[in-house]
Amino acid sequence: MSLLPFFALYFAIVFVPLYAAVRDLMVHQIRIERTRAALALATRDGAQMAVIGPGGTLQGVPGWMERRVVEVWNDARIPGATLSRVECASGPPPRCSATAEVVTRGFLGTLRARVRGDGTVLHGITRGNQ
Questions:
Q1: Which candidate, 121, 127, 124, 118, places its Cα nearest to that of 100?
Q2: 72 and 42 in contact (C-beta within 8 Å)?
Q3: Rounded CA gap, 23 and 106, in Å?
Q4: Phi-psi domain of 54 (left: phi exceeds 0; alpha: psi -120 through 50; beta: other)
Q5: What is the DSSP-derived secondary structure letter of residue 94?
């Protein structure tokens, strides 16, 4: 009598679910990292929507900044991730923050994570010959 059927059954019971669980965790982690990168890009780009105020200081327009964050986020198209909150302040310096939720459904059930991104105007932005 061969032990091959027993080994095949053991492999199917032990290793296939383990592989599926590891795959689910990897997919979820990749989505979290993509979301973190997209939020960082979107909030920094939104904070750049600033105008020169009195005295040569940079001041943001919150409506423009928030629309830019949403626009950059929508271009990212990350599956399972939704933008839940965007807030921008005129500064100084102009700032944006955003929160997104990542949901992955798979063998382990539903995995959820909340990711936050913050951005401000980059240092070294000047006007004219300053």
A1: 118
A2: yes
A3: 9
A4: beta
A5: P
Domain boundaries, the chain: 4-120
Q: Tell me which residue has tokens 């080994």.
A: 7
DSSP for 3-69, please give it: SHHHHHHHHHHHHHHHHHHHHHHHHHHHHHHHHHHHHHHHHHHHHT-EEE-GGG-EEE-HHHHHHHH
Closest by alpha carbon to 47, among 82, 5, 98, 3? 98
**Residues of the chain where predicted confidence (pLDDT) is lower than 70:** 1, 122-130
pTM for the model stands at: 0.76
SS3 category, 45: helix
Give the pLDDT confidence score for residue 84 in this predicted structure: 92
Residue type, 93: P
Q: Which two tokens stand for residue 88?
A: 């921008």
